[in-house]
Design goal:
Order of helices and strands: HHHHHHHHHHHHH
Oligomer: single chain
Largest sheet: none
Helix content: over 70%
Radius of gyration: 24 Å
Number of strands: 0
Length: 399
């Protein structure tokens, strides 16, 4: 059961289009270039590999769905607007991939001229890939900052948007590999496309571009949002996290020794992936802890009737919220559990609105939207108390 609440439009639900900002038109121009370039790559062989291509698109759509669901859960105190999330993925999938294809090919040629073709094929990916691709993807986060600065309030916003840019890049890069191997396979274009697609999704999917660009995006947002810190600290953190993104990407692309038995290839690949995943979650741990401190600080002046000490503890993480709902379900039933989840969502909305007013320096009484959310919270608490009371009565009657 959910209480019927007043609808409140939170500031972070705004649109991406900003026609008066030059960065927006540069962003659009880069997307158009990327779309045309990818169309040029696809069009010659599309008629022959259409089935294989659409099969690969289906597999990668499933991958994208799971990543989007995970990223939505990682964003503890704010749901980023759909238009900006889509823009981030479009930059990664169109602009960054198209520019990277050109830059990587040129860089491999240069490496081959200075060394030899075999060395360039072996060591080009761990050198060229990170150096070209990471700054192109990071530029997507920078462009978002220039276009929709209001959506970068805290460091974790950069991690989320960076991961979305990386996800777009990963999905489209997977499709380019599917096209390549569909054309190369002499027996079946479908077999060639799906073989490389499943290999990339199952082996590289859990620790690929979303993690690298998430780390770089965290550094960019730290530089942009932590204005009370010294400039040298902000630059150092941003540079360090960008270097970490390069290192994570380089580690994954690093070739295994040719003398190694093939049976060890997959375990060692997963070992590298787990190192990358571990580094990402360390970064996320610190970003999430900073998010909770922000929430506590923002809500510290609210009355006990709006948010209690128990609420603050429950809101710390997704795990703590889930445990609170499970406890409510056990003690007072499914209705109370549902109401508690609704209460948590309204508290997040309230924190977002209060933080907005604090940024604006507003010290007047609650505005209409803040007052509406507080009425929603009061109504949910009243219904939650009634649900607890009904459960207590039913338990007493049963005894």
């Amino acid at each position: 059961m959910n209480v019927r609440t007043e609808r409140v439009v939170v500031e972070s639900q705004g649109a991406f289009v900003r026609i008066r900002r030059p960065a927006y038109w540069l962003f659009v121009a880069c997307l158009v270039y990327g779309l045309l370039e990818l169309g040029r790559v696809l069009s010659p062989d599309y008629g022959d590999i259409a089935t294989a291509l659409w099969a690969s698109i289906g597999v990668n759509a499933v991958l994208a769905y799971f990543f989007l669901d995970i990223l939505a859960r990682l964003d503890l105190f704010e749901r980023e607007p759909p238009t900006v999330r889509a823009a981030a993925m479009c930059w990664g999938g169109l602009a960054a991939v198209a520019f990277a294809m050109f830059a990587n090919d040129a860089a491999i040629v240069v490496l081959a001229e200075f060394t030899d073709a075999q060395w360039a094929r072996t060591w080009g990916p761990p050198i060229v890939g990170p150096l070209n691709e990471e700054w192109l993807k990071a530029m997507g986060v920078v462009m978002l900052v220039l276009i929709v600065r209001e959506h970068f309030d805290r460091s974790i916003d950069g991690l989320i948007y960076g991961a979305l840019v990386g996800l777009g890049f990963q999905v489209v890069e997977n499709l380019t590999y599917a096209i390549k191997y569909a054309v190369m396979n002499p027996n079946s274009d479908l077999t060639g496309a799906l073989t490389v697609t499943f290999t990339r999704v199952l082996v590289a999917g859990p620790w690929s571009h979303p993690l690298y660009t998430g780390a770089a995006g965290l550094g960019i947002a730290f530089f942009v949002t932590q204005t009370r810190r010294r400039l040298s600290t902000r630059i150092g953190v941003a540079a360090g996290l960008y270097a970490l993104a390069l290192a994570m990407h380089g580690l994954w692309n690093m070739p295994l020794p040719s003398s190694m038995p093939p049976a060890l290839g997959i375990p060692l690949s997963y070992g590298k992936g787990l190192i990358i995943l571990g580094l990402f979650f360390v970064l996320y741990h610190f970003a999430a802890r900073a998010e909770w401190h922000w929430f506590v600080t923002t809500m510290s002046d609210q009355d006990e009737g709006i948010i209690t000490a128990d609420d603050l503890t429950e809101m710390r993480s997704l795990r703590s919220r889930r445990k609170a709902r499970q406890h409510a379900h056990k003690e007072w039933g499914k209705e109370a559990s549902s109401l508690l989840g609704q209460l948590h969502r309204e508290l997040v909305n309230l924190a977002t609105l209060v933080a907005r007013d604090q940024r604006r320096g507003e010290t007047l009484e609650d505005g209409p939207d803040v007052a509406a959310v507080k009425r929603n919270i009061a109504a949910i608490r009243a219904e939650l108390d009634e649900a607890k009371g009904r459960r207590a009565v039913s338990v007493g009657a049963a005894q």
